[in-house]
Amino acid sequence: MIHFEKVEVEKTIKDLNLNKLARDAGSQSPPMPHSDDVRPDANELRVVEFVVEQVQKNREQAKNCLQSLDIDRDKVETDIDKNELVSLPKEVEAELENLKTAEKNSIIEAYQAERKAKRQLLRFKADHQRTAEADYPDSSILHWSLLVAAVLAESAANSYFFSKDSDLGILGGLFQAMLISALNVGLAALSGANGLRLIYHIRPFKKLMGALWLGLNGGVLVLINLLAAHYRSQLTIDIDHAAELAVKALIASPLNITVFDAWVLFGMGLMFATLAVIEGFRSDDPYPGYGKITRVYKKTLRFSDDLRRAYLDQADQIFLESFHQIKSRTEEKRVLVRRFEQLLENSKEVINDFEQSVSANEEVCNALIEHYRDQNVQVRDKNPAPAYFEEPVYFDPKKVQLKDINFSRDEKRAAEYLDSLERIGQDRERIKEILDQRRQTFADGAEGFFQELETLAEQKIKAETNS
Fold first, then answer.
1. Where do transmembrane segments lie in this chain (predicted)?
2. pLDDT at 163
């Protein structure tokens, strides 16, 4: 885990020049230390201080390591407490409350829009005497694509007739046919979608407008197709001036068409125009505006339903995630408790290793002191060595010991964690049962919640109306 330095005897003897210090002191007159001294001399104290200095470095290293381990244990302890299963129901409640707060206004606004659209629809039905539901195609895109297909079909058919006497051949005939077909089918579809529908209106004026629209538009469609037929006839006479001659022929004698293909072209044009009128009429409900206002209401209804489903789906996702959390937190707690125990053991190992390093360095210190004293005695001549030379030296505990180290709290917490792991199976089942009950309660109360929001929406609409 951590390596504590040990003072080297031979290196220290050289670094401190211990042999010379011992001999110089012992060869003095009188020799040092004095025979009657009871305390180590300055050289011995210097040796002790040198070794103690290294021990103190080791102590700082141990303190830093212990502090780091304490921080790690605190973090693990926080994670264990944060991921306790017993807190899961409260967390779910908080998430559900946040969900309500986040979605409440959106759902109320959707209900308001739905209620307003419904009132407008009911008012429209009452004003226009509508009792049946609006009838219109499910897909407007698909419906109008049939008209596009009609344009292409008429263009393909007409191009055959125009290409017979055209210098541009099939391509030239197709281009001319597409222009005439688009105009013919487009005007017919507009007539069916608007003019014919106005005839179904309950107001006489609207009916009259619809009849006029159909009459005028019908006349225009007949003229367009007669003009196309005359143009086809003139292509056989004068290709370069066919358009000009067709207009003159139409004005002079509208029905004087002598080419059979031209009559076929005229008949096909009226047929496609009639089909376009019918498809234009069928593009929406027969009564003007009824289909549009119904679609607006159904759109708001779908939107509010989508918000309701989204709200319920999000709530259900909260419960599903909580069930997943039961399993994941159980596994995570096991890992965290093992981690907590390991960190506590690591702290104890650091202290044990440090205490062993103190003992080892104290032995080194005595070996250095003994070497010094042996060298000193060798040169003292007949002067006896002090009696304390026979005694070992000891470190001052205040200088080398770690202070305020107490693991009783952490050991108690570790025991509590281990005890909770033994009960975790029961806790899992109990929390799951609580969440299952809350999930059912939420589902049962969801309709009441939506009704409450509907009431608030109605109140807001009334307040807007009164203001």
1. 168-190, 211-231, 251-278
2. 56
